[in-house]
User: Which sequence fits this backbone?
């Protein structure tokens, strides 16, 4: 038996965006800018309901880091690339400790099956994990995960501190992982 870990493809990943209308064009959608806006960043869109689910998952264990993957699409509208987070899968079988989070081989197997079954045609647009009481940042180990498993230029990371009730997104920009803003979507008047 080999001591090397085999990493599975979690979903078909494409570097080319799929054509789709950007959420700004939907007049039936309320959009709220959150965090640091930067015109050179790739816009990230997530619904209020989905982000609430992710935060609820983060609050589910305040003594250990928890996480999962962000599912959706890498889209393009009139020359503007954007990310739309359309689903979330918690990382069952992950190794969450007080100050670290690791995807295990079993986690990747489970995520692969669940993406195919529950989010057909979607791709992994990023990942999420919590930092209970530590703030919103990417540690050296978090950066390693992002560089090695979420290294397509459009893949993002979301960190939630469930004790401070803070969160933030990170994305690739100029070969570096930087913190960035995002757009919260929902029905008008909410």
Assistant:
């Amino acid at each position: 038996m080999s001591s090397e870990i085999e990493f599975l493809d979690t979903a078909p990943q494409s570097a080319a965006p799929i054509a789709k209308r950007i959420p700004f064009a939907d007049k039936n959608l309320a959009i709220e800018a959150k965090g640091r806006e930067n015109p050179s960043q790739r816009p990230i869109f997530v619904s209020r309901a989905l982000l609430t689910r992710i935060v609820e998952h983060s609050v589910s264990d305040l003594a250990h880091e928890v996480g999962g993957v962000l599912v959706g699409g890498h889209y393009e509208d009139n020359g503007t690339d954007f990310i739309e987070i359309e689903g979330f899968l918690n990382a069952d079988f992950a190794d969450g400790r007080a100050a670290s989070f690791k995807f295990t081989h079993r986690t990747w197997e489970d995520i692969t099956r669940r993406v195919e079954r529950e989010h057909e045609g979607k791709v992994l647009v990023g990942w999420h994990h919590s930092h209970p009481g530590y703030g919103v940042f990417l540690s050296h180990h978090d950066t390693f995960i992002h560089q090695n498993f979420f290294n397509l230029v459009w893949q993002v990371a979301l960190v939630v501190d469930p004790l401070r009730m803070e969160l933030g997104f990170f994305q690739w920009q100029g070969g570096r992982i930087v913190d960035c803003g995002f757009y919260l979507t929902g029905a008008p008047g909410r």
Confidence is low (pLDDT under 50) at residues 1-12. The chain has one domain: 30-186. The chain is about 20% helix and 35% strand. The first helix runs from residue 48 to 59.
